[in-house]
Amino acid sequence: MITVDVAQELAAFLRTRRERLDPRDFGLPARRQARRTPGLRREEVAELAGISTDYVVRLEQARGLRPSADVVEALARALRLTPDERAYLFGLAQQHPRRADELATAAGPPLAQLVADLSPLPAMLMNHRYDILAWNSEMAKLLLDFGSLPPPKRNAMWLCLMHPETRDIYVDRERVVREGVAHLRTAWAAHPEDQALTDLIAECIARDEEFARLWAERDVKVNGRGRKIMRHPDVGVIAVHFETLTPLQDPDQLLVIYRAADAESRSALERLCAH
């Protein structure tokens, strides 16, 4: 049976990543003495990462150290790891990567195309803070023409609380808001460095008493599926089941898909999308 020794695997991974690097790519001076091992020396990695050579030695000798998230990030940069290798290193170190510079603010072309291809099912793509990054025409007809809004206002929570066309769209509004607040609190804890999320929460607390009350209750929940009932001004009441999926390579993005919950709602959606 194969067992995983995390310290040994971390050590081996760091060594192999170090040894594959070409010193010339780092502008390191040529040395008269031939290198005994390929790649960078430990002291060179230590200098690039801003940590001590002794610490790199102990990591590569599997002495049971658990580097901090800052050290792991520094090593990932110094070793020029790919995104998948970086995630693997963080996993071995039992740390969570900080992704302030990688938070999605726009939908990548493959996911944007997937949202469009899901028609006639209403679908949209959001990030962890509920910013709406992509949507298809069915979702726009059901909820709102998001393209008519400036990008900072294309946020599902902000729209639910403050936009006049969507504030009262949900029949079960209190539950929808409660679940949204619980999701945002979970996202806030996972992304303490996300200033845009912090600013959104502060605005909602200041401008909406219901949000402020629910935020103070400190409920946390990630709601991946459920049911919503909406009042549409053109076709009446529509009940939908929603499913929230997370793309494997974009784990901070949420693909939300609606399906009619009953025959009457299916008929109403078909009439709406036929306009």
TrEMBL record:
Q: Which SMART domains match?
A: HTH_XRE
- Where, by residue number, does the polypeptide cross the bilayer? none
Show the InterPro entries listed in the entry: Cro/C1-type_HTH, Lambda_DNA-bd_dom_sf, MLTR_LBD
Q: What domain of life?
A: Bacteria
Residues forming the HTH cro/C1-type domain are 32-86
Which Gene3D superfamilies has this protein been placed in? 3.30.450.180, lambda repressor-like DNA-binding domains
User: What PROSITE patterns does its record include?
Assistant: HTH_CROC1 (PS50943)
Q: Which GO terms describe its molecular function?
A: DNA binding
Q: Which CDD domains match?
A: HTH_XRE
- One Pfam family it belongs to: HTH_31
Name used for this protein in its record: XRE family transcriptional regulator
The organism of origin for this protein: Actinomadura verrucosospora
Give the taxonomic lineage as stored in the record.
Bacteria, Bacillati, Actinomycetota, Actinomycetes, Streptosporangiales
